[in-house]
Amino acid sequence: MRQEDVVIVLNVGRTGSTWLSRALGKHPEILDGCECNFWCPFDVQESTGAGRYNISHMHHLHEDEMSQAFLPSPMQLLSEEDVLEIMGKHAMEIFSKALVRAGKEMIVDKSPSNMLYPYSISNVANILPQATYIHLVRDFRAVWDSYKRNMPSYWVSNGGVAKFAGIIRSAYARLHDQFGGIATVRYEDLCEQPLREMRELLGWIGEHASEELLSEMIGDVKTPREIELEPGERVVIEGVLGDLLTQYGYAV
């Protein structure tokens, strides 16, 4: 198995990543990893529930991440380069065995927390530098609106829109630092032109599909709902993230 056979979706939550990973998983050669959260910091709640496991359990975090550090492990006896090499082999062994068991050629790892925790972005970039990456982006105003509607305690009760915009800003700074040429797809384009976008994504990861299979993969595509924001929320998001919105083709 090659690193390129691991397809990693980089995204924040509420961007359609669940739909995308499930759609890709309908391809006969692609295994949907079912949101394994492999790269999250070990203390992120959603990555440590029943049955969860992630790579950070093997790795003593850097000094600037000590607030998230866990008990000392033998890995601290090694150099950073050795630790990353071991974790890379470990990750590939897990993915390889999963593919053999499923009879597939590629695996898609979708973990919404990846983009929200800078250490996770560094983890995945350093451990599997040759993996195939897909960046899924959605209008950040719609992301905030979706969080408010569906997961209010995630942001609304924990810092509000200003914290949300700041974290997104930081996440994208790290993304741009760590990754160069990766495929970027907009959630809105997936909804409006699913056949075209899915065909292009399959080409990016080295797979193809008949028109019949493409139609089966995309299934029922949702129509993005109208964004409903308070005036102050829109001002904050556009003020902090306006250049990113423009960069990804959203009107400000």
Strand portion, in percent? 5-15%
Briefly, what CATH class of the largest domain? Alpha Beta
Total number of distinct structural domains: 2
How many runs of DSSP E, i.e. beta strands?
Answer: 5
Mean pLDDT: 85
Distance between the termini: 44 Å
Low-confidence stretches: 60-71
- Molecular shape: globular
What's the oligomerization state? single chain
Order of helices and strands: EHEHEHEHHHEHHHH
By secondary-structure content and strand pairing, the structural class works out as alpha/beta
Largest sheet report: 5 strands, parallel
Q: How helix-rich are the residues, as a percent range?
A: 40-55%
Report strand order across the widest sheet.
Answer: 2-3-1-4-5
Radius of gyration: 18 Å
Instruction: Count helical runs.
Output: 10
Quick synopsis:
The protein has two domains: 3-138 and 182-221, P-loop containing nucleotide triphosphate hydrolases (Rossmann fold); 143-179 and 227-252, no CATH class. Mean pLDDT is 85; it is low at 60-71. The protein has ten helices and five strands.
Describe the structure.
The protein is of the alpha/beta class and 252 residues long. It folds into 2 domains: 176 residues, P-loop containing nucleotide triphosphate hydrolases (Rossmann fold, 3-Layer(aba) Sandwich); 63 residues, no CATH class. It is built from 10 helices and 5 strands. Strands 2-3-1-4-5 form a 5-stranded parallel beta sheet, sandwiched between helices. About 5% of the residues have low confidence.
